[in-house]
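User: Hi! I have a protein structure encoded as tokens and I'd like to know what sequence might fold into it. I'm fairly new to this, so please keep things simple.
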């Protein structure tokens, strides 16, 4: 089974942390959308219900078979809407400790992955998912564990995983429209 996860187009969050805020996407780069759409081979399409994901799917010419709330981005709690430059300095945390860190009123990466991974593991055929950077990292964590937090996931980038039985393998990470 092939799993293609496309991160939504750049959010129009004015450079602030979007997380669970339902902000729109900038879907104006038609050439980038055309390049990414040409790479997709959907058997089924699933999207986060976030506006930016639904807009991205539409700009790709995709109609989701379903919207799945479990695919929403990580809830950043008190960090929602914050300028990234103002995020608290957590110091040097081991990756597994960073994955467990929960912002005030939010969820940790581990919490988010615990709701995303069952959706991915339940897939029974080739799928395209339009979702968030956190969703992509949760998928990668099925192969590399909490080290998935170290992966860059650009807007409108494509990540591809394969599953044989219960085993997942990473084919491509962060394939951007210009690559």
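Assistant: Happy to help. Inverse folding works backwards from shape to sequence: for each of the 179 positions I chose a residue that suits the local structure. Here it is:
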């Amino acid at each position: 089974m092939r799993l293609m996860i496309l991160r939504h187009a750049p959010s129009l969050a004015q450079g602030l942390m979007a997380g669970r805020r339902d902000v729109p996407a900038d879907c104006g780069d038609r050439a980038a959308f055309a390049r990414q759409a040409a790479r997709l081979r959907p058997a089924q399409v699933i999207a986060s219900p976030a506006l930016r994901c639904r807009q991205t799917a539409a700009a790709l010419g995709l109609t989701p078979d379903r919207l799945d709330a479990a695919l929403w981005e990580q809830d950043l709690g008190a960090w929602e809407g914050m300028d990234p430059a103002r995020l608290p300095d957590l110091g040097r945390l081991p990756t597994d400790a960073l994955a467990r860190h929960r912002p005030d009123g939010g969820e940790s990466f581990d919490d988010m992955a615990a709701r995303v991974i069952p959706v991915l593991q339940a897939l029974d055929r080739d799928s395209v998912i339009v979702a968030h950077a956190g969703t992509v990292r949760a998928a990668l964590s099925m192969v590399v564990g909490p080290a998935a937090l170290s992966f860059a996931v650009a807007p409108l980038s494509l990540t591809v995983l394969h599953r044989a039985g219960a085993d997942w393998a990473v084919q491509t990470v962060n394939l951007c429209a210009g690559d």
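A useful reference point when you look it over: The helical segments are 30-39, 51-59, 95-100, 109-121, 133-144. Feel free to ask if any position seems puzzling.
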